[in-house]
Write a structure and sequence with these properties.
Elements (H helix, E strand, L loop, with lengths): L1 H21 L7 H25 L3 H28 L5 H7 L1 H17 L5 E6 L5 E6 L1 H27 L2 H31 L1 E3 L4 H18 L16
Antiparallel strand pairs: 1-2, 2-3
Length: 240
């Protein structure tokens, strides 16, 4: 139990630090605020995961897992907005073009959670000491993880488009931000796809999100000390 707890809380602290560092400069553009908000949401995700692992009663684990899924419901929409605006010179037109997908990912998951958060889980599996081993998803939990999978695919697609458009010094400035963000969302894509396939949240693999967040933050940290990467203006081809 100790290593997953260390991973969860250390990754949460790391994400909070990066969120604070990203908005320290005087120039606080939209991508900076979206990045900071996204990092705080991911920090809340792994923090509530860590707190839920500390609980010895299933009812308490369920309580903190509900808060964790509230954070997860916000994550794909926020990070898709970041992927659409980071290092993009045509931010507003890109946001308008993807407004339907963006609005869907921002509104529907949190709406499902608000309407029926009791429908997150239908049952759970626990060991003799009361520690939860797995949650079985209800329709609300299934919808949130489906949104995460769709959001992760779109996020990775737009990060790849930004990377392909960049060349030379520009690529050197932004590549670690793109790689770190891609690593974080690849971890979430794996965990949520497993949840959809088995209609259950297996606690034995949840630590992957914390590991992905730590490694992603390490890559992103290298980018945060490079001048001008948030202000870079690239114009990817509109052809998919």
């Amino acid at each position: 139990m100790l290593p997953p707890l260390i991973i969860a809380f250390s990754s949460a602290g790391f994400a909070v630090i990066l969120a604070m560092v990203s908005v320290l400069p005087r120039s606080r553009s939209l991508p900076r605020w979206l990045f900071a908000a996204g990092m705080l949401i991911l920090a809340a995700d792994v923090a509530f995961l860590g707190i839920s692992l500390l609980q010895s009663r299933p009812v308490d684990t369920v309580y903190f897992q509900r808060w964790r899924h509230a954070a997860l419901a916000l994550a794909p929409g926020l990070w898709l907005a970041f992927a659409l605006t980071y290092a993009r010179g045509n931010r507003l037109s890109t946001l308008r073009k993807w407004r339907f997908e963006l609005t869907t990912l921002l509104v529907l998951p949190i709406l499902f959670f608000a309407i029926n958060n009791n429908g997150l889980f239908t049952d759970l599996e626990a060991d003799d000491s009361g520690h939860v081993l797995a949650f079985y998803l209800g329709w609300t939990g299934y919808a949130i993880h489906l949104a995460i999978v769709i959001g992760a695919v779109l996020i990775l697609m737009h990060l790849e488009r930004t990377f392909r458009t960049s060349v030379g010094t520009t690529r050197w400035r932004i590549k670690f931000m793109l790689m770190g963000t891609a690593l974080i969302w690849a971890a979430h894509l794996y965990i949520s796809s497993q949840a959809l396939v088995f209609r259950a949240i297996d606690f034995s693999i949840q630590g992957i999100s914390g590991i992905g967040l730590i490694l992603g933050c390490l890559l992103i940290l290298r980018t945060l000390f490079r001048t001008g990467h948030f202000e870079t203006d690239l114009y990817p081809s509109p052809t998919v």
